Amino acid sequence: MEKYCSLLVHFDKGTPALANEIKEALQGNDVPAKIEAMKNAIMLMLNGETLPQLFIIIVRYVLPSEDHTVQKLLLLYLEIIDKTDGKGRVLPEMILICQNLRNNLQHPNEYIRGVTLRFLCRLNEVEIIEPLIPSIIANLEHRVPYVRRNAILAVMSIYKLPQGEQLLADAPETIEKFLSTEQDPSARRNAFLMLFNCSQDRAVSYLLSNADRVLDWGELLQMVVLDLVRKVCRIKKDEKGRYIKIIIALLSAPSAAVVYECAGTLVSLSSAPTAIKAAATTYCQLLISQSDNNVRLIVLDRLNELKASHREIMVDMIMDVLRALSSPNLDIRKKTLDIVLELITLRNVSEVVSTLRKEVVKTQSGELEKNGEYRQMLIQAIHSCAIKYPEVASTVVHVLMDFLGDNNVASAMDVIVFVREIIETNPKLRVSIITRLLDNFYQIRAARVCSCALWIIGEYCLSLSEIESGITTIKQCLGDLPFFFVSEEEESTDSSKKSQQASTISVSSRRPAILADGTYATQSAASENAFSAPAVLQGSPAVGNLRSLLLAGDFFLGAVIASTLTKLILRLEEVQPQKTEVNKASTDVVLILVAMLQLGQSSVLSHPIDNDSHDRIVICIRLLCNTGDSVRSIWLSSCRESFVSMLSDKKSRETEEIKAKAQIPQSQPDDLIDFYHLKSRKGMSQLELEDQVQDDLKRATGEFTKDADDANKLNRIIQLTGFSDPVYAEAYVTVHHYDILLDVTIINRTKETLQNLCLELATMGDLKLVERPQNYTIAPESSKQIKANIKVSSTETGVIFGNIVYETSNVLERNVVVLNDIHIDIMDYISPAACTDAAFRTMWAEFEWENKVAINTTITDEKEFLDHIIKSTNMRCLTAPSALEGECGFLAANLYAKSVFGEDALVNVSVEKQGDSKLYGYIRIRSKTQGIALSLGDKITLKQKGGN
To answer: Hey, which bits of 583-697 come out as E strands?
Structure first.
């Protein structure tokens, strides 16, 4: 059986010392050797070794030593040895050390006195302690603070013993007198701690009588005061008003630790607006004054908790929270923006957006390497604000459009998506946005951003001047036609190979050029650097961005250019009265489209045009040659209508989420309600009155009552043995974030006493047992509760298995009952989470572990199957409900969840219903770690058929 131990020392089992060597070293006169021998003896004994006859050698040769280190090690040795026999009586040889301890307590050296008093704190044998009490009390008046503070701790430990009140009857009174005269901060803290633990009423009366001077007490004492206040207020809730005044006073303490604890205590004790505002202000001050990033993140967590329960107060603090953006740490900035975005109201939105706009401008300096990521976060935050409150969009949209040419593609993409949404939701800004977009279009370097910008130009250029400007801008960015020239000589068989090897052709047309392999060619580009990467090109109207992307082989962009130009010509027909101008513009566009098809089918580029892009460009040419009214409405109206329905769907989903979050707990109609107007207000401060009102409101709305889910509790009880086994066992499994608690009930079904009964457990997976098993004795037909703690280090399905071993009085051999396995469900560790489509795609590309599960189910409806998978895996569907509507026999959806360890779980469901009405397809799971991908795959395989 494991023994109680108050000492833990690392022990290297590789080279254990021999008992004879230890004894020889202790008997010698060499002090360093004696110190080393004492250390070895202590480590061996801590690891279960028995060293017989060592005690007598130590009493003879170590006890008289004057060396301080030897004396310290002697006390550690005395701490770990058995001081009692099997019946609990003190061993007679322990009397030998009593006199030595008394001498130490009267030693002229303060260190010896101090370490001895510390040793006495861990001594439980009354027979050894009793003769030493006068010496301990005398040390309370020693001149050195180190001795006094340890003497107080010794008094406290003795007073806590079962017979402590008989040994030190007047200890609280003595310590109270000591506290009134003591000046040393540590000694005062220990004295107050003693009163707090042993005589709470005295501690409270001392605190209340000195309430005005609490601010002058040291940091250590103030922390104990806060512990006392928390403890008292939990028991006596009616009296917390006067303690809250003390906490409010401590908020101006110089120590950051005290101030932080004060704010936390204030929030836990009171819901009064004054108290919450004081706590929030304190947290905001800590956020600015502390330079440690970990401290700032913890403070932001506290502010986040306040936001959840006291949003209306936190709204007023929003600008103080925003000051945390001055930190260069991205995690702090992200958490700050997340808090701020949930506190946006009509009153503060313009001020917040103004601050965010200034931060965006600051990121242009390029001093920090992560400025691009920070800018992206700021743009997303501004986007969110502008969608909620469209009136602020006008102040930021033009500033953000300067970042369309950003080197960080994700940041530029966020800007263009923001512009696309604003131009639809804010019709007043349409003209100015289109003008600015056309002015800045040539700066855009990323193909994805160009595609989105072209769509906006095609949909929102409505007036004659805008349409003409749009066509002109695109033509300028495409450059002169054709996109390439071919000479007669180059039409030889190896010309295509040479052209593919060319990385840069920096010559004018029809002049020999030297290729990378040293050979000559007479092919030339219509513009310089035709084949260089688009990232290398510097944006200017002379070298078009669209041209460079097309010559790099991006024909999806070519199809977007074709559809945009087609839309612009169709709109031009409606607003341009002169048909000749329309025909001229239409002819120019058809020429551009034909040139793109020629480029795609030529041998100039390493990859020819894809079929999809080819077909789209051909459709555009046909449409321009022969336009019908039905086709015109599809091109000019249907696209915009789809976009509007997507925006409205997104807004309705956000509204539903806000409503779900805003649900408040309901109280029962027959619950008791206190009416505070009928209460006595005599002698109550404004803060106390506010606090009582808030408590009454919480009671009325049911926030104090939390009904336990009894059915869920029963589901967590697992039977470990059969009903016919001599020992019946069942476990109640509680899963906390990082550990699993097994509460095992063991019942002796026999008529015999079971001795040395031990619950032996083992684990598989990333689970680790914390405690060693202990032996128990269970009487006939009685039961025993055994708790086992298991640590979890990652999200994967783990298994706990084991057996119960016991002995009976009749049989000498041990009996074993094998237990059922306990499977720890991955669902306990993952919870639904949300992320943007862009973030999902990025993670999907980055994560290396994929588990592909074939669909095998009896469910015949695609939507029903998806709902079943979502429910079984505890994940969130990121695909919009509108995208899943309709009966097309095919369904694809993305699911997302996050584990308590911060791991991401991505799932893609692709289902197809075939002719036999069965569902076919695959479910792909991706994650950063192997465990979560495999465990989630096993769970889906188990659950997908539709069973429980």
So the answer is: none
| Residue 843 parent element (H or E) | helix 837-846
> Kindly report the CA angle at 345 between 341 and 346, in degrees rounded to 5?
135
Distance of CA 508 to the CA centre of its chain: 58
Secondary structure (3-state) at 658: helix
Phi, psi of 777 (to 5 degrees): -115, 125
Q: Do the Cβ atoms of 198 and 156 come closer than 8 Å?
A: yes
pLDDT of 124 above 90: no
**Beta strands 775-778; 798-808: pairing state:** unpaired
Is the alpha carbon torsion for 322, 325, 326, 327 positive or negative? Answer: positive
In sequence order, the 6+-apart residues with CB closer than 8 A to the CB of 358 are none
User: Which residues are 925's β-sheet partners?
Assistant: 851, 907
Which of 638, 600, 629, 602 lies closest to 616 in space, CA to CA? 600
pLDDT tens-digit readout, 233-252: 877 777 777 788 888 888 88
| First-residue to last-residue Cα distance in the chain | 43
- Give pLDDT, residue 712: 59
Q: What is the pLDDT of residues 328-374, one digit of tens each?
A: 888 899 999 989 988 888 888 888 888 888 888 888 776 656 777 88
Determine the residue type at 562.
A
The residues facing 899 across adjacent strands are: 830
* pLDDT confidence of residue 924: 92
Cβ within 8 Å of residue 80, ≥6 positions away: 5, 7, 42, 45, 46
**Residue 927 dihedral angles phi and psi, to the nearest 5°:** -155, 170
Q: What SS3 state is found at 816?
A: strand
- Short-list 347, 291, 270, CA closest to 316: 347
Whole-angstrom distance, CA of residue 131 vs CA of residue 145 = 24
Neighbour-count burial of 686, counting CB atoms closer than 10 A to its CB (0-12 exposed, 13-18 middle, 19+ buried): exposed
Structure tokens at 714: 């029963």
| Residue that the structure tokens 């028995």 belong to | 50
DSSP labels, 197-209: HH-HHHHHHHHHH
According to DSSP, residue 635 is labeled: I
Read off the pLDDT of each residue in 163-168 and give the average, rounded to a whole number: 83
Query: Among 650, 647, 658, which Cα is nearest to 341's?
Result: 658
Answer whether 796's CB lies under 8 Å from 823's CB. no
799-824 pLDDT, tens digit each: 888 899 988 876 667 889 999 988 87
107-135 in b/e form (b: 16+ CB < 10 A) is eeebebbbbbbbbbebbeeeebbeebbeb
Q: Residue 324 in contact with residue 287, Cβ under 8 Å? A: yes
Residue 499 banded pLDDT, cuts 50, 70, 90 = very low
Tell me whether residue 35 is exposed, middle or buried, using C-beta atoms within 10 angstroms of its C-beta: 0 to 12, 13 to 18, 19 or more: middle
CA distance 328 to 369: 10
Q: Residue 266: enclosing H or E segment and its boundaries?
A: helix 256-269
What is the CB neighbour count within 10 angstroms for residue 303?
25
| Beta-bridge partners for 927 | 849, 905
Q: Which two three-digit tokens encode residue 878?
A: 């990121």
What percent of the chain clears pLDDT 70, i.e. is strictly above it? 84
Rounded Cα gap, residues 343 and 322, in angstroms: 11
* Mean pLDDT, the chain, integer: 80
Give CA separation, 777 vs 92, 112, 782, 804, in Å.
30, 43, 10, 13
pLDDT, tens digit (0-9, with 9 covering 90-100), for 921-930:
999 999 888 8
Question: Among candidates 53, 69, 47, which has minimal Cα distance to 19?
Answer: 53
